[in-house]
Amino acid sequence: MNILVTGAAGFVGRNLVENLKNIRDGKDRTRPALHIQKIYEYDRSNTLEELERFCADCDFVFNLAGVNRPKDPAEFKEGNFGFAGRLLETLRIHNNTCPVMLSSSLQATLAGRFGTSEYGLSKRDGEELFFRYAEETGASVYVYRFPNLVGKWVRPNYNSAVGTFCSNIANDLPITVNDPSVELEMLFIDDMLNEMYDAMEGKPHRAEYPKSGEIINGVEYDGVTPQPTEEGRYCFAPVTHKATLGRIVELLRRFHDQPHNLIMPALPNGSFEKKLYSMYLSYLPKEKISFDLKMNCDDRGSFTELLKTTEYGQFSVNISKPGVTKGQHWHNTKWEFFIVVAGHGLIKERKIGTDEVIEIEVSGDKIQAVHMLPGYTHNITNLSKTENLVTVMWANEIFDSNHPDTYFENV
What we know:
The protein is α+β, with helices and mostly antiparallel strands. Helices cover about 25% and strands about 30% of the residues. It has helices at about 10-25, 50-55, 75-95, 120-135, 160-170, 190-200, 245-260, 270-280, and strands at about 1-5, 40, 60-65, 100-105, 140-145, 150, 185-190, 205-210, 215, 220, 225-230, 235, 240-245, 265, 295-300, 300-310, 315-320, 325-330, 335-340, 345-350, 355-365, 370, 375-380, 390-395, 405-410. Strands 14, 15, 16, 17, 19, 22 and 24 form a 7-stranded mixed beta sheet that branches. About 30% of the residues are buried.
């Protein structure tokens, strides 16, 4: 399969092209049904002669080219309608009826606040052009009305508030939020790419867009929400997320503060928070890619907190100098894992009120996780005379100096 991507230099185009290369080169094996040979990248820097050649040889077209921030509104028509017509006519000249995907926008619904949008009108005209092309040629046409597209490589201070917020907060620049209650619907680029792969496999998710106020199966539609249906005229990506501007900014500020307080917020798999954090990190300036951790040092070695989580405790690393013993305390409900990753040591644990001592020899040559049991006083000794003992420690809760649940007692 040969793929033509127009608008290849844009945010969506770059993400799509690089990930199609991963499939082509066998680096991404999650789509075994897709076999890609050539990827034709077309953008403003290319010539019409190249477009001719690409259209003659492609087996699938992603039309991502468009205009969304022109100096003159008239450019909407040319960018979102004129080029589309040129693309389809070129395919027609070469009798190429391969499937064609169109990147449109929810603004094309002309519902609610989109009713007077020049951009939405130009996108609507482009959609109709593709539908007529499908009727006339029999080609499969996949028209997607995307909400706010977000993810890595979104251009800040352009047409994405989320991209601007990520960039400014990552770079310690001010942001402006006029109304924190405004809600955005967002489609993250990776979820969009999964839908594009579905389309390439001939199984796009289809939908219709009921008019505002229309009630179907007891659901009142707002004009911009797709109604999934197998025979739908339009296509849509099923995984999107909604959040207010206030919520987005709140999360970004938490991400910004993580290197200082070490607290990692909950990031459930597939969640908006997890995807937004990944997007935020892509805007970090190079001087923030690494950050110092506070090492608590004394003549015995050092103890450094690495990461704290609100739900799953905290991680630390302990370095003990040769011959040093650390610990000698117990907890009521707190418990820990000690994981020696370098050196040679001995862990001892004794149940409070008894004389029996459990001894476990540990080494970085055979990495093990050892439970520090609640109600057992415990310690760890570096048995080496020359090498430091390095232990990664996990505790089931963040240390609270007001309620430390830590009591000194020699093993």
